[in-house]
């Protein structure tokens, strides 16, 4: 099945297709200044102002975020116990322009 068949039409820009996808995700924030980032076990906390195009590690539930953090960060439990880490629910969003860039293999 192709993405186009999901919408029952050819997906080309300018054909009136409006797409906006949102989903709730969970992120990990340290000291209200840094966000847990990275891929493939190469994780780090990055200052919110320095995120740029860095991949932010997201989770589908708070429980999965907590479990994932505990299994990937050496002193995770100490940070949690000290109240330095928060698990924050956010909304991830994908709009039409980003979607077409993705279809074309371009960077958003």
Query: Total number of helical segments?
Result: 4
Strand % is 25-35%
Radius of gyration in whole Å, from Cα? 17 Å
> How many strands in all?
4
> How far is the N terminus from the C terminus?
24 Å
The averaged pLDDT comes out at: 82
Task: List the helices and strands in order.
Answer: HEEEHHEH
Strand order of the largest sheet: 3-2-1-4
Largest sheet, in brief, is: 4 strands, antiparallel
The figure for the number of domains is 1
Low-confidence stretches: 1-8
Structural class: alpha+beta
Helix fraction bin: 25-40%
Rough outline: elongated
Describe the structure.
29% of the residues lie in helices and 31% in strands. The protein has 108 residues and is of the alpha+beta class. The protein has one domain (21-104).
Brief summary:
This protein has four helices and four strands. It has 108 residues and is of the alpha+beta class.
Give short descriptive properties of this protein.
108 residues; alpha+beta; four-stranded antiparallel beta sheet; 4 strands; elongated; disordered N terminus
Topology (SSEs and partners):
Layout: H1 3-7, E1 20-30, E2 34-39, E3 42-47, H2 62-72, H3 76-81, E4 85-95, H4 96-104
Antiparallel strand pairs: 1-2, 1-4, 2-3
């Amino acid at each position: 099945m192709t993405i186009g068949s999901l919408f029952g039409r050819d997906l080309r820009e300018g054909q009136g297709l409006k797409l906006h996808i949102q989903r709730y995700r969970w992120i990990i924030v340290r000291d209200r200044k840094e966000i847990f980032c990275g891929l493939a076990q190469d994780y780090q906390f990055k200052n919110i102002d320095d995120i740029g195009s860095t991949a932010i590690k997201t989770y589908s539930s708070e429980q999965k975020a907590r479990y994932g953090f505990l299994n990937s960060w050496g002193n995770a439990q100490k940070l949690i116990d000290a109240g330095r880490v928060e698990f924050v629910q956010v909304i991830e969003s994908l709009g039409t322009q980003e979607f077409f860039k993705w279809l074309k293999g371009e960077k958003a």
